[in-house]
Queue: 2 jobs
Job 1
Amino acid sequence: MKNKLKQIFKGGLGQLTIPLIAIALLVIFNLIRDPSFFSIELMHNNDGNIVLAGNLISIINGASELAVLAMGMTLVTAACGGQDISVGAMAAIAGSTFVKVLKASPSITGITVVIAFFAACVVAMLFASFNGVLVAIFKIQPMIATLILFTCGRSIAYWINGGATPTVESPIINAIGGFIPGIPVPTPVLIVIAVAIIFALAFRFTSIELFTQSVGINGSAARLNGINSTFIKLLSFIILGACVAVAGSIAVGRLGLINHETILLDIEMDAILAVAIGGNSLGGGKFKISGSIIGAYVIQMLTITLYAMKVSSTDVKAYKAIVIIILVVIGSPVIKAKFQKLMNRIKDNKRKVSVKGAE
Amino acid sequence: MENTKKFRREPLTDTQLLMTITIGIFFAMYLIAMAVLKGGFLRPQQIFDMLNDNAPLIITSCGLTIVMIAGGIDISVGAVTSLVVMSCVLYLNRGGNIFVSVLLALGIGLAFGLVQGYLISYLEIQPFIVTLAGMFFARGLTTILSVNPQKAEHEGFAKLRDVKIEISWLGYVAKNGNRIPARIELGVVIALACVLIIFLLLKFHKLGRGFYAIGGNQQSALMLGINVKRTRFITYIISGLLSGIAGYVFMMHTGAGNATNAAGMEMNAIASSIIGGTLLTGGVGNVVGTLFGTLTLTTINKIVVSSGLKDPWWQKITTGGMLCFFILLQSIVLSRRSKKKQS
């Protein structure tokens, strides 16, 4: 038992060390600053449902879209060694499709919502496979290939909407972005859990995780071993497309309208950041989805903490940047090696002292 | 014998090939616009307007080209430009000195370049994350300085801003009979000077060749005796410094600081570098190509606006389409060449 503990401390938690340290630091900081930050209470919302409320809930709830996108982004990063910077724009397209289909139907029922969601999924997957084809078949770097949709994606969403910001009003849409009557947990959180379970099942019962890693580490070696690396790269983009559709639908559900300019603005940067904080290499290869999910919550917790400290929403970015830099500096290989050296020297000194004492 | 040697042409390198394609497409597009759309495209002032509006973009793209040639990426350029504009405007409005404001602009750019370059090259952190943090920091700092737009009200600065080079024989006769000379802003001169200096640096200086070397193959560069870390450090310093200059030029063009200044400039700069034939993988690129990349990007926008597509979304969609075209073209050209080399 002791040995095992020692091993954990020695090897750290591997990839998850940095995100867990970050969460721990944020929790300690908040405990010192104001313990009531963590209070959770049951209260009645406007519709008369009993719901959970509190800073912790708003952290977990607010990071939902980010967490879903980070999961897909991790796969793309691992397989292609690059990031998709068009997720925000694609989410705008998916959200617009979602709203467009809902608007086209005479009344919004459960079935129409499901149909609309599938339409959004198909459209997002089509756009994602456009990116995927550029990356996998034409061998263009992901960041360049997705720059195209990053540039024009929001304009395409605008075009789908026909130059307006349409609203949808329905209890079902409100339930997607808010609470299902009778369940006190926010629906987006449930959706994130569902997506995470799907990922876990897919990794458990198929070899996609192994294949993705081997394609990311060395694509041509993977191909010589019989893995279709083009298909794996394309597949990672299509999965990201599905994640984008989920995130876009949640975002539409929260507000009940689609604004192509502001929906999930700058989320691509946050999603890439979540992947990086999760300890995944942005150069591809080995990955851990759990790291990215924790990374997403770290980012949201940081944001909410800053809001709680009365930092205005436009200024949050500057403070966020400082924390990010501190985190990546701690995690950088050079600093780690220096720290290791220092520890060794301290140990050596101790040994010398004890040897001298014995003499 | 000597004659044949003189006239034997070396095959174009990747850099030159991609640059030639871009320049060719730019001229073809402009000539077609002149023939079909007429109007403003027939006046030389159109080209000068394009340069006047895009001088800051040209300068930042130059910096980005260097960083990309060395195999890195810098997405903080737009935000740093915005921060420079805001801080210089605020400084001048408090009765500052113009000379000091130039130093302030350069200092801010240099500071960002130094910190980011140190973190990336000596601490080996991924450039995307570091410059992303730099972007967040600069944008956040800009809004902390002022959320509201600030107009520069400094007499000396107003004089400096109005310095324009007028070429009367390139002008045109306006409808009311007045002859309007062609106007070039001071910023354009600075931008073209930057392009020239960087072109010479990349082409003839040891340091510039080092950029290509570390971008092409880091390991080989190390074995050739190039100080890889220091060379990479210098690319970010140059990029930061150029963002500072771009910020000052931006301020000379608009004369006001706004938190949303230069929004999305980093992606435009990356796009112009790519259209100009720079590869994000490093080792390939040319700053003259970047200049034409910027002009191509602007020409597309001008054509869309003047060809009567009124709906607001067409501009960006056509830009995206053109970007897609250029990227695909590059990919096909390069893959065909590498196949030819192998056979």
Note: The two ends of chain A are 35 Å apart (CA to CA).
Job 2
Amino acid sequence: MPEAVGTTELAGDLVIRAAAVADVPAVTRLDSRITGMTKPDYWADMFERYGKRPNRFFLIAEGEGAGVIGFIIGEVRAWEFGSPPSGWIFALGVDPTARLNKIGSRLFEAMCGRLAESGVDMVRTMLARDDELNMAFFRSQGMMGGPFIQLEMSLYGFAGGHG
Amino acid sequence: MRLQQATRCALFAVLELAQDPDRQISAPDIAEKYGISANHLAKVLRDLVRAGLVESMRGAGGGYRFSGNAKRVTLYEVVHMFEDIGSKPGGRPEGGDSSDIGRALGQVMNEIDETAVSTLKSITLATLLKLIHRNAAGQAGSRSKKDSVNA
């Protein structure tokens, strides 16, 4: 049964900080509640790749007495099909019961601040077209359609492909 | 992409009213501000009242007031009231649809439709109002830069 959205009001301060290895189990649990899939290896690998290196940011939202209630991950990418260095956000999660407390906005602002400090002046993301929740969130933060377009095709029939 | 006249009237009216939900504005005032037909707007406003997005205030100083939730209502909901945007495959078939060319063209048209629908669904009235304010602030900023260069 889906969790009731926005039922928790934060009692105290919200802290946005860099993730530590000790946060990985809590992030794994939170992601599992949001997506319905538990992926401990994936999140351990994400921390290794994005929690420890320059120009890569794995941030946590921690509520007073509530533990980890949100996360965001981003990095600086450069020269993909001619794109000058720009920030990329590719993961965002907020505890469904704690939504409507501006946790996503605080995480997004913190990420934009870190990306700007890294010297880029543009931030991008890519979402599923039908992901209305995240699409509306990023739009509400001021993001607009950009000059790049995502393309894909099935690899069915290629060597090594299934089928 | 061009929206139909009724849709444009509705978006102008809803967004004008949503900028200040406490303010009442008459239909002729909205029509004059945006250069749209007052008759057309009156019909559109009736539909918006029925949908619960605006309310009609009677009496002296009456007019219309925004009564929806700007953080929840998306552009798609307003547009969809007045035109069939992003019509799904399976609608009335047209000549050539089932040919190889027709099917391939249909795939491309569907991609465009789906992008348009998801864009409109992702933008709430509140988000569009923010964009309007950002644009205005940007214009004011570039004007003051120009003024200081010219000074």
Note: The CA atoms of residues 55 and 75 of chain A lie 6 Å apart.
